[in-house]
Automatic annotation (TrEMBL):
This is alpha-1,2-Mannosidase. Pathway: Protein modification; protein glycosylation. Residues 24-66 form a coiled coil. Its cofactor is Ca(2+). Keywords: Coiled coil, Disulfide bond, Glycosidase, Hydrolase. The gene is MAN1A2. Belongs to the glycosyl hydrolase 47 family. SUPFAM superfamilies: Seven-hairpin glycosidases. It comes from the Eukaryota. Pfam families: Glyco_hydro_47. The lineage of its organism: Eukaryota, Metazoa, Chordata, Craniata, Vertebrata. Its EC number is 3.2.1.-. It comes from Equus przewalskii.
């Protein structure tokens, strides 16, 4: 057609009709889609409303306990009965703290977390294994401390939560096996004991054959509960004896050294830390008071005295304004803080109420400052997971320097502190920081066979250590879960968490002073 012959007006009107026609069709299509989507959403909402509260709760629950399911299910498949799991090799794993036999450490440590998360089939599965297999009459040398906090603590907690007698029975059987460890000239227990022969000894690496403060000083909660449940004062007497002995000793600068010789009753090396070797001793002084319904004033006094000395000599501010807890070694302060010491943020917050001279605000603030420093130690890494130990030296702040200190082994302490501070302040930053940590664990520690620690948090391509620690299920995942739950789940005025995150109830013992009278138990 000759373009010159076209009636231009007619052409334009045809083109417009066509264009607008298409646009109208498109609009109509869109409107229909919006209507359909809207209808669908309404239908879905109606469906949801038809569900019972329980069903909705279960759906939310499934989302919240996904990490636990992954850790547990893989242990169940590849490591069942072993102490821990190698998630990459997909087989069992153990270390010398659990001795040479398969004691199912992950099962016992994880029980209460499963229960709290509503994973009841898994809980029953664990219970069945314990009923059928957990046997303490084995020729195996175990760590008294680790077995106490993970096994006795875990079993007691499972008992209190579920009411199942078997857990109490097993806890008491195990405790009886630990008692020979106290047969030393001073009554300060050995670090290790053979469950069959009752022969005890100390770690070869500990200063001058010493026992460790954080080990013999972290028995009180579980042992008081054992006496309470059995009516047998023997456990109570053992831990009160340790307390009395410590009270009588001189403390350099008011600080407790980490090493004490169980033969001579003398301190070993003058090394004080709120991190490894010292940590949970201070925690248990405070928790002994809380657990006694705040009647064990002796424990509270020991805690207050210890914390004042720690604040005076070990807690400093870096040039960049970060509050950190250093370590005291032979009269000199090492400006280094371990991941383990990060639990102290939560401890300061927990101890704020009831502090001397009404310094509650001060201790809450101190707890928040430690939480901030520990968050920085995570934030200054490539993986957003914290190193085992970090320095404050010159330009270095909250960063690990030595290669051997750059690992993260799924430890809980930082998340534990976020949780306590969340409970006491409801400041949303703690949930934000906890969420960051959860995402980082998912991204870098999750493997198809479970969760693994990483060897260098500063390297963006992580190398896995191939260990799923039992405390990951007992503590890290429990504290994360609690951080995103309501305050009515395990309220802190009724429950006190042992150092392995196993909740034990406050004992309301009328007419009792837990500081001096075992007969009332
Ligand atoms: C846990 O076994 C306990 O929290 C203990 O008190 C110290 N460290 C580990 C986890 O890091």
């Amino acid at each position: 057609m000759d373009p010159m012959n076209i009636d231009t007006g007619l052409f334009i009107s045809e083109v417009l009709t066509l264009t607008f026609g298409r646009a109208r069709e498109e609009e109509e299509r869109l409107r229909n889609k919006i209507r359909a989507d809207h209808e669908k959403a309404l239908e879905e909402a109606k469906e949801k409303l038809k569900k019972s509260r329980e069903e909705i709760r279960a759906e939310i629950q499934t989302e919240k306990n996904k990490m636990m399911k992954h850790a547990w299910d893989n242990y169940r498949i590849y490591g069942w009965g072993h102490n821990e799991l190698r998630p990459i090799a997909r087989k069992g794993h153990s270390t010398n703290i659990f001795g040479s036999s398969q004691m199912g450490a992950t099962i016992v440590d994880a029980l209460d977390t499963l229960y709290i998360m509503g994973l009841l089939d898994e809980f029953r599965d664990g219970q069945k294994w314990i009923e059928d297999n957990l046997d303490f009459s084995v020729n195996s040398e175990v760590s008294v401390f680790e077995v106490n906090i993970r096994f006795i603590g875990g079993l007691l907690s499972a008992y209190y939560l579920s009411g199942e007698e078997i857990f109490k029975i097993k806890a008491v059987q195990l405790a009886e096996k630990l008692l020979p460890a106290f047969n030393t000239p001073t009554g300060i227990p050995w670090a290790m004991v053979n469950l069959k022969s009752g022969v005890g000894r100390n770690w070869g690496w500990a200063s001058a054959g010493s026992s460790i403060l954080a080990e013999f000083g972290t028995l009180h909660m579980e042992f008081v509960h054992l006496s309470y449940l059995t009516g047998d004062p023997v456990y109570y007497k053992k831990v009160m004896h340790i307390r009395k002995l410590l009270q009588k000793m001189d403390r350099p600068n008011g600080l407790y050294p980490n090493y004490l010789n169980p033969r001579t009753g003398r301190w070993g090396q003058y090394h004080t830390s709120v991190g490894g070797l010292g940590d949970s001793f201070y925690e248990y002084l405070l928790k002994a008071w809380l657990m006694s319904d705040k009647t064990d004033h002796e424990a509270r006094k020991m805690y207050d005295d210890a914390i004042e000395a720690i604040e005076k000599h070990l807690i400093k501010k870096s040039r960049g304004g970060l509050t950190f807890i250093g370590e005291w070694k032979n009269g000199h302060l090492e400006k280094k803080m371990g991941h383990l010491a990060c639990f102290a943020g939560g401890m300061f917050a927990l101890g704020a109420d009831g502090s001397r001279m009404d310094k509650a605000g001060h201790y809450l603030e101190l707890g928040a400052e430690i939480a901030h420093t520990c968050h920085e130690s995570y934030d200054r890494t490539a993986l957003k997971l914290g190193p085992e130990s970090f320095k404050f030296d010159g330009a270095v702040e909250a960063v690990a320097v030595r290669q051997a200190e750059k690992y993260y082994i799924l430890r809980p302490e930082v998340i534990e502190t976020y949780w306590y501070l969340w409970r006491f302040t409801h400041d949303p930053r703690y949930r934000r920081w906890g969420w960051e940590a959860a995402l980082a664990i998912e991204k870098y520690c999750r493997v198809s066979g479970g969760f693994s620690g990483v060897k260098d948090v500063y390297s963006s391509t992580p190398t896995h250590d191939d260990v799923q620690q039992s405390f990951f299920l007992a503590e890290t995942l429990k504290y994360l879960y609690l951080l995103f739950s309501g305050d009515d789940l395990l309220p802190l005025d009724h429950w006190v968490f042992n150092t392995e995150a196993h909740p034990l109830p406050v004992l309301h013992l009328s007419n009792t002073t837990l500081s001096g009278n075992p007969a009332v138990l």
